[in-house]
Amino acid sequence: MKNIVILAILIFTQNNFAQNSFNFDGKEVAAGTKAHFKIPVEHQGVSTFIPITIFNGAEAGETLGITAGIHGFEYPPILGAQRLIQSIDPNSLKGTVILVQLANVKSFLGRSAFVNPTDGKNLNRSFPGKEEGSISEKIAYFISNSVINRVDYFLDMHAGDAPEDLMSYGAYYRNDDMPEISATGKEMALAMGFNHVVIFDTDEKAYMKAENPSLYTSAESFKRGIPSIDIECGRLGIPDSESANQVERAVLNLLQQLNFTPKVEAVPNLPTILITNRTYNESTVDGIFYPLKKAGDYVVTGMKLGYTTDFFGSVKETVYADANGLLLLILGTPPVNKGDTLAIIGEFDQ
């Protein structure tokens, strides 16, 4: 009798922790395996696809969703995602990871900064998307309803686009009405190992209202009650291996923090500066911009950041810092249009 009870307990325990197959796009991904998918997207004769990898762990657990390449000119996250194909081992994974390798293939292949060249839309302003919309809207709709709606945690990965000199950081969404979800997001962001973490405070944001579109990929997941974080790593559309490595390491650290993978090495416990507010400088003219600072520089109110000339060399605008803090981003290439963001200053408690 004793042996029967022990056997029953063992069977129960095994069944309780065994992973089921994961159904994605009509295909079953067996436990302890990974599978690649090419999701077709078409609109008015224009076709593209979304490359996605499913890692279904050997042990049952939660689900993490990751997107890279929402902007196709932001290369380090895209290259980091390619590395994760090999570095995430489903045999040692608990739960499931849905990795969107490259959300915006047309932008990537067309070397198009910010927008999808087929419809001129910014995918990161298109969420939650439309089932019968343009190419970008359809991509957003698929990610919203076939990826985000299936996950317990969400990470969106970006970098400085072609003209953006950007310092690397992690970020998380917070809202006073969502304290537990916000706290989990903070823990996730800190675990990735960046020296700086930006707080996306959503208390007064119009996109948080139910009747308004979320616009941003990770804002869509946060609105759905999912702890949501971002990576910004890389600058000026440069495909440097150091930034790609940092993206890969950040994701692997996150998997350990969330107990998707064994803690084979300590997740870095680095001193982290929390950026509590961001101040934007926008151009008031068209012309040629000359930056006098670089991303990561510390600036104080009134410090000269750069200037813009007309096409004959006459200075039309001088740009000064409106706050004390770190330059999270500064325009790093000469062309500037009226209304373009010239600089973003991250403010923090000192």
TrEMBL record:
<feature type="domain" description="Succinylglutamate desuccinylase/Aspartoacylase catalytic">
    <location>
        <begin position="61"/>
        <end position="256"/>
    </location>
</feature>
<dbReference type="InterPro" id="IPR055438">
    <property type="entry name" value="AstE_AspA_cat"/>
</dbReference>
<dbReference type="GO" id="GO:0046872">
    <property type="term" value="F:metal ion binding"/>
</dbReference>
<keyword id="KW-0479">Metal-binding</keyword>
<protein>
    <recommendedName>
        <fullName>Succinylglutamate desuccinylase/Aspartoacylase catalytic domain-containing protein</fullName>
    </recommendedName>
</protein>
<dbReference type="GO" id="GO:0016788">
    <property type="term" value="F:hydrolase activity, acting on ester bonds"/>
</dbReference>
<dbReference type="InterPro" id="IPR053138">
    <property type="entry name" value="N-alpha-Ac-DABA_deacetylase"/>
</dbReference>
<keyword id="KW-0862">Zinc</keyword>
<dbReference type="Pfam" id="PF24827">
    <property type="entry name" value="AstE_AspA_cat"/>
</dbReference>
<keyword id="KW-0378">Hydrolase</keyword>
<dbReference type="GO" id="GO:0016811">
    <property type="term" value="F:hydrolase activity, acting on carbon-nitrogen (but not peptide) bonds, in linear amides"/>
</dbReference>
<dbReference type="InterPro" id="IPR043795">
    <property type="entry name" value="N-alpha-Ac-DABA-like"/>
</dbReference>
